[in-house]
Amino acid sequence: MLQGEIATASPAVQVAALDPGEISSILIRPHQPIESGDPLIIYGDDETVLRLESLRTRLKLLALQSEKEMKMYDYRMLQSEDQLKLEKDLLQRLTGLLEEGAIQETQVLEKRAQVKKSQLAISSLIVEKQHALHKTEQSNEEVKANIRELEAKTKRFTITAPVKGFIHEVKYQSPGERIQAGEVVATIIPDRELIAKVRIPSKLSAPVEVETSATLEVDAFPSSDFGSVEAKVISLSPMTSNESRDSAQKIYSADLKLVKTSLPGQLSLDQLKPGMAITARLKLRNKAVITTVFDVLSKLFTPLNEQR
User: Fold this and answer.
1) Which of 60, 68, 239, 257 has the most neighbouring CB atoms within 10 Å?
2) DSSP state of 275
3) Measured at the alpha carbon of residue 192, what is the angle toward residues 187 and 196, in degrees to the nearest 5?
4) Whole-number Cα distances in Å, 289 to 203, 221, 286, 295, 298
């Protein structure tokens, strides 16, 4: 008979906090079933909230400042266009007077220079407005990026379950406790296919093979009342390991698929939980006859050799 336990096909999932903070609410307890995405713990810090409020206020101020600045440019543009229109009108009149010989040509040339200057001023104003608009958009984007970063951090303050399963362990018990970045706050046992893990001594006389049939007795459900569980080996560890830190005995680890229960009316596979202890009886491969003969002869001659 071999000892082992019921386990999940996937290992336990450790849930860690990504940022430091103070717990405000604990929404779970050990052994509680959960769905993927369910909130587990809510925490936060005052600094993030204050920075977020400050950035949102700054974004509003930038919008107001940009609106005021654009109105100023529009007003200056309107003035410049009116000035250009006036100077063009004067240039046209001066040109007529020049043709009549009433004024000197230098006056017309001076006015043409003023018209050109006004046109350049308008072009420069357009470029200046575009530059100011680009600068404002750049400032807005920097503030929005910081806001998005802090909002993402705020969402991380609600720690959620990455998988469906049930809570195995919760590190924190009450609000007000501090969480450090990267610290494990809860352990989840995934709600996936259950298997049996069995420890096989390396000195076992007959090797265990994949597809080997087995009968399991679950300690929590005595076989006299609930029957047993039929299983088969689905994988074997390629190397041995020490059974415990203080033991020198080498063992193999075998994973067994749970097939069915012998008394479905008394016990179903859904009633089994990870961590339940089991006792397994495996149907081992028979040795060849010649191997068995040598084993018997070895046992007969060993005492004689020891007497010598």
Assistant:
1) 257
2) T
3) 90
4) 19, 39, 9, 10, 14
| CA nearest to 190, candidates 7, 5, 4 | 7
Residues 38 and 116 in one domain: no
pLDDT for the residue numbered 206: 60
Distance of CA 65 to the CA centre of its chain: 39
Residue 165, by phi and psi: left (phi above 0), alpha (psi -120 to 50) or beta?
left
Answering whether pTM is above 0.85, one says: no
Residue 144: domain span: 47-156
Instruction: State pLDDT tens for residues 88-134.
Output: 999 999 999 988 888 889 999 999 999 999 999 999 999 999 999 99
Residue 172: partners with Cβ closer than 8 Å, 6 or more residues away = 23, 26, 41, 179, 185
179-232, pLDDT tens digit by residue? 999 999 999 988 778 899 998 887 764 677 888 899 999 999 999 999 999 999
Please tell me whether residues 131 and 220 are part of one structural domain.
no
**Which residue do the tokens 């041995």 mark?**
240
Residue 48 — very low, low, confident or very high, per pLDDT cuts 50/70/90?
very high
Residues 112 and 252 grouped into a single domain? no
Would residue 263 count as lying in a domain?
A: yes
Can you list the positions of beta strands (E) in 181-228? 184-190, 194-201, 213-218
Query: Is 208 within a domain?
Result: yes
SS3 179: strand
Cα dist. 44→182, 243, 265 in Å?
15, 43, 50
